[in-house]
Amino acid sequence: MNMDFPSNKFPEWMSECDKVDSVLDKKQKNPAHRSVLEDSLPFLEFQGSIVYSYNASDCSFLSEDIIGTLPEGAVLGFDMEWPPVYSKGKEGKVALIQLCESEEKCYLFHVSPMSSFPKGLRRLLEDNRMKKAGVGIEGDKWKLMRDFEIRLGDLVDLADLANEKLKCKEMWSLNDLVKHLFHKQLLKDKSVRCGNWAEFPLTEEQKLYAATDAYLCWHSGNDVAGTGRLSLIKESGL
């Protein structure tokens, strides 16, 4: 995609390299002050419709609908959850897959209660015509491969992309990106985050938590340039 910005001029968030360096210096000099400022940021939550699917046939139907409805090159916010296992060297199996397609709708595919992995969802996840955007998504790719032999297609790691655009070498979490890009923060309730994601049904708190993460991956991928049209991903030429 051609850039519409003048030479050496980027959208505001992309041109704040000096500010980022300054912030990093301040972080090192006064971490207590930084913590107070960050704790005062307003919380950001998904406000749209949450589609919760826990039946394999319904899940396949919804996945096929996404494939047939969204255009080639569309960005899906992506995340996964699995239950914690407090045994060394062991890890829980993926229990929930979250996909966000727009400001209005996020899908929660609760695969743990399903008798088999939905064919339609497998096809959607492996489809290279749609980008899956997330933080640390390369690790998710390998976990899906281990757990279900799914080859996640067309990945965009938002942390790597942010470092490329901001010319930084930060270890970005999703919450870090939200704070930097949107001046808000995620509500990370440990009792929800470390809850049993394999248990059916999910609580309303779990649904909101999961949908918000996927939504913010979609939002970061599509709207960080501040225009709603000039997306971070599309501008990068990926």
UniProtKB/TrEMBL annotation:
Which cellular compartments is it found in? Nucleus
| GO MF assignments | 3'-5' exonuclease activity; metal ion binding; nucleic acid binding
Q: Which SMART domains match?
A: 35EXOc
Q: Which residues form the 3'-5' exonuclease domain?
A: 50-233
Biological process (GO) annotations held by this record are: nucleobase-containing compound metabolic process
Show the Pfam families listed in the entry. Answer: DNA_pol_A_exo1
Q: Does the keyword Heme apply?
A: no
Q: Which UniProt keywords apply?
A: Exonuclease, Hydrolase, Magnesium, Metal-binding, Nuclease, Nucleus
> Does the keyword Hydrolase belong to this entry?
yes
Q: Which GO terms describe its cellular component?
A: nucleus
Q: What PANTHER family does the annotation carry?
A: 3'-5' EXONUCLEASE (PTHR13620:SF109), 3-5 EXONUCLEASE (PTHR13620)
Q: Quote the function comment for this protein.
A: Has exonuclease activity on both single-stranded and duplex templates bearing overhangs, but not blunt ended duplex DNA, and cleaves in a 3'-5' direction. Essential for the formation of DNA replication focal centers. Has an important role in maintaining genome stability.
Protein family: Belongs to the WRNexo family.
The protein in question is named 3'-5' exonuclease
Organism listed in the record: Phrynocephalus forsythii
